[in-house]
Amino acid sequence: MNKADSERMAGILQEMGYQEAENELTADLVLYNTCTIRDNAEQKVYSYLGRQALRKKTTPHLKLIVAGCVAQQEGEALLRRVPELDLVMGPQHANRLETLISQVDNGHQVVATEEHHILEDLAIARRDSQTCGWVNIIYGCNERCTYCVVPSVRGKEQSREPKAIKKEIEELAKRGFKEVTLLGQNIDAYGRDLPGISSSGRRKNTLTDLLYYIHDINGIERIRFATSHPRYFTNRLIEACANLPKICEHFHIPFQSGDNEILKKMSRGYTIEKYKKIIYQIRTLIPEASISADVIVAFPGETKKQFHNTLQVIKEIEFDQVNTAAYSPRPNTPAALWPNQLSEEVKVERLRELNLLVEETAKRRNFRYKNKIQEVLVEKINPKDPNQLMGRTRTNRLTFFPKYSSDNHLYKPGDLVKVRINQIRSFSLTGLPIE
Ligand code: SF4
Description:
Layout lengths: L1 H14 L13 E6 L4 H20 L4 E6 H6 L1 H6 L5 E3 L7 H9 L4 E3 L19 E5 L1 E2 L10 H5 L3 E2 L2 H13 L4 E5 L23 H8 L7 E5 L8 H9 L6 E3 L7 H6 L6 H14 L4 E8 L6 H14 L3 E6 L17 H23 L6 E9 L6 E6 L4 E5 L13 E9 L3 E6 L2
Parallel strand pairs: 1-2, 2-3, 3-4, 5-8, 8-9, 10-11, 11-12, 15-17
Antiparallel strand pairs: 6-7, 13-14, 13-16, 14-15, 16-17
Helix pairs in contact: 8-9, 9-11, 12-13
Bound molecules: iron/sulfur cluster (SF4).
């Protein structure tokens, strides 16, 4: 989500005539798009800002901007901490960057963190990839997971109109993009704030309806979506993914903890049994699907037994990938105030044990690709080996292969290539093109 915001803001700067500087210490304008999901991400911002604040003394025309979730969380307080800042802007204001910069040009120090109806995406994003594009479909989140800072920094849910989303994807297809990833903090909430009830009394504008609506856009070969919430994940969605050929066989569904007591304290709104049922249904209808998840360990009060319940779920489900984190107390969240916080030592130890298991499981799972042919969408040249290309399988496995075929055909970004997999690692694959 943050990357998508960065691309939109970079697009606005480009439209305004700014060019990319060689590095941040020579730039005339520096914008940090920040993340506050965990404390260490937030602390990094302050160290970067310290260096820029010093530069401002010798480069008075330097424009210094903090955008994103730290900006939203800290607001005015950020100006007191770093008075050299020109602009502090929350994520809901990303599309207003040009207006806000013009206020700075008029001599103001600006804080834009008030609740704001997000403008339809008029900004043309400067996309890092020419093949795979992010498309926001819903901003904000109305859930109240007790550890999570997102609702307080990204505001209430705001779904984009299906027509506007389709138009953006059509534009991407015209520009040669082959894959889109639909984005939302809780993508299953898509459409809850849009009008429309069908004759059967069902909501009309759900994520499933949107998938059907955008599926046939010419030129787009693959569609993904993230992030799913087990509380709202429906069978109808799984059936749509099984029926629609462009929807990739990959599901990212965070389960956060394998223990029902902890899930309750997290206010996640489902049990681990319900979660397993979803995975079972996906694997019944789409046996080749890969499943990834997010997990938090050492949540306040988590016992050894409860932690082991999380490990057990990872063993049982055999995830393809799990993003892991030790609990980090965030400002303005209920769990941060609870007295039963666990020590750093326990956090580090549990995270280490979890990561070992995740790596082992992912590698075992990857062995199913050995000697199999996978369709890879080429994204770019491998930065570590210019003779190799890198891309992803439909199941979202990062895959490397030589850029020339055996008969000297040169592959390029945007190509869909059949690759026979011959090397397996925990989080990536290597193979040879077969056509
Ligand atoms: S659903 Fe996701 S973004 Fe929303 S509060 Fe829960 S963890 Fe945070």
